[in-house]
Amino acid sequence: MLPALPGGRALDLERRLSYRLSIFAAKIIRSVARMYGPKYGLLPSGWKTMAAIGRYGPASAKQVCAFTTVEPDKVSRAVDRLVELGFVSRMQDTADRRRVVLTLSPAGRSAYNDIEQATRAVEMALLECLTTDERRTLDRTLSKLEARMAQRLGERQPWPNRAARRNRAVSGRAAT
How far is residue 60 from each of residues 9, 81, 128, 133, measured CA to CA in Å? Predict the structure, then answer.
């Protein structure tokens, strides 16, 4: 007989947090990809890259990796594709010539806004089955789990918080 595992049957594969969240996220991504993939010729890594640049940009490829957790080689390919499609422009940072800054072009901003609308529609359709209190609880719970994971990994939260974003917008400086 096998020894009991920590967490017991509550942590069998189909109940495991990491498994459930990865399956859930993949299904959301597939749903949204069906809406924008054919229209814009993007894979999920391209959309994630564009979403990070659209939300936090101008940004470097290294920052995009941190914002999305997409592997550097996939971000590089995605950036190449986005540049080829005319959605993203690359510019050398004048303050640090080793750094390349990525920004959305007007066409990229339009595609980003369209894809964000599709993503929000999918997420709103999912969240509408929850009460306002359940949504708040879910948000607090996920924030707690994210903080715990960052703590366990010895990381800071890779995405800028709202206050930092506001401060950058006011000062006119891009993130480095």
Answer: 43, 16, 35, 37
